[in-house]
Amino acid sequence: MTYSTGFGPISVTVGDFNNDNRLDIVVSNWKDNTTSVLLGYGNGSFANQTTYATGASPRSVAVGDFNNDSRLDIIVSNYDDNTISILLGYGNGSFKNQMTYSTGSKPCFAAVDDFNNDSRLDIVVANCDGNTISVLLGYGNDSFANQTTYSTGLGPYSLAVGDFNNDTRLDIVVVNRKNNTISVLLGYGNGFFTNQITYSTGFTPSCVVVSDFNADNQLDIVVADANGKSVTVHLGYPNEGFLKQMSLITGNGSRPRSFTNGDFNNDGQIDIAVVNSGTNNIGVFLGYVNGSFANQMTYSTDSSPCAIAAGDFNNDTILDIVVVNRDNDTIEVFLGYVLLILLLTYLLYLSLDLYAHKKHI
């Protein structure tokens, strides 16, 4: 199912914006300085978009409750005016006009979490041209302290948050697009962070997610390598940091741009879904308990998919996927039961092929 957005959609995330226990979708629109909110009906379909003004060239979008009123709010990083926009939610699916806060140069990604353990959400932003991240601590009343910046590698493009050293304090990982590294900044638990530790990764890293892929109670890092036709998995080891474990091949000309993780086949293992902007498809890598993955299975999308998010849009306990198609100003929703049937069919085909091969031998 396809839905219209604003011009140049580039980022997407999900949340329940009107407190009806049905997931909704929010998209940032790069070319017309808006965000689009599409309210979900709970059956896998969505209402037409409602748009809200942002700053110049909104690059990424995230959600959280910034004023502790039990209503989800929206944050957008505005690439061309060096700000973030906060849109406070009314709890009925609509939002107030934006408030803005200064960041570093060319903010291209934002995430939210509680970095100083005060039960108030904070914000971290990757500044592409400043080679920094900005941390803005929240007061819990919809306002934020001025940014504190930390150095990264060259061209920080995306980031994720997690406790990488199991000290119950949140840390930050950043992908540095221009020097093919990831930076890990360990948190002190008071809103401040250590200097970066860097690790090599694939070519032109464009996105990062974290999860425990091998069930060892240690967070792992996965990076999409836009010019490397692959996804790089870095398994975490206690007191040793992250080691380059494997590359998952997405195909020639695939240009993987963004991905999400979740259990897409309901086997209890974390899987990866990546959008391949060069080949116009979604690649799904099914995970095994040891942290390795099956070969990619692909599903066709519209033109130039550039962002992806997952959620249960029809309340059937199976994860669904939403993809942003940059070149035709749309999002596509892929319902999980359809994906699951295709996954099972593919696995059955592999089993039959393997059986036939053994019988021939």
Can you give a write-up of this model?
With 361 residues, this protein is mainly beta. It is 7% helix and 45% strand. The chain has one helix at 336-360; strands at 2-4, 9-15, 24-29, 34-38, 50-53, 58-64, 73-78, 83-87, 99-102, 107-113, 122-127, 132-136, 148-151, 156-162, 171-176, 181-185, 197-200, 205-211, 220-225, 230-237, 241-249, 256-262, 271-276, 281-285, 297-300, 305-311, 320-325, 330-334. The strands form seven sheets. Strands 1-28-27-26 form a four-stranded antiparallel beta sheet. Strands 2-3-4-5 form a four-stranded antiparallel beta sheet, with no helix packed on it. It has a four-stranded antiparallel beta sheet with strand order 6-7-8-9, with no helix packed on it. A hairpin with a 3-residue loop joins strand 20 and strand 21. The model has no long low-confidence stretch (mean pLDDT 92).
CATH topology: Methylamine Dehydrogenase, Chain H
CATH superfamily: YVTN repeat-like/Quinoprotein amine dehydrogenase
- Tally of individual helices: 1
Return Rg in Å: 20 Å
Task: Give the CATH architecture.
Answer: 7 Propeller
Distance between the termini: 45 Å
Tell me the β content.
35-45%
Helical/strand content category:
mainly beta
Q: What is the helix/strand order?
A: EEEEEEEEEEEEEEEEEEEEEEEEEEEEH
- Average pLDDT taken over every residue: 92
Compute the number of structural domains.
1
Report helical residue fraction.
under 10%
Biggest beta sheet summary: 4 strands, antiparallel
Low-confidence runs of at least 5 consecutive residues? none
Shape: globular
Class in CATH? Mainly Beta
How many runs of DSSP E, i.e. beta strands? 28
Describe the strand arrangement of the main beta sheet, using strand numbers.
1-28-27-26
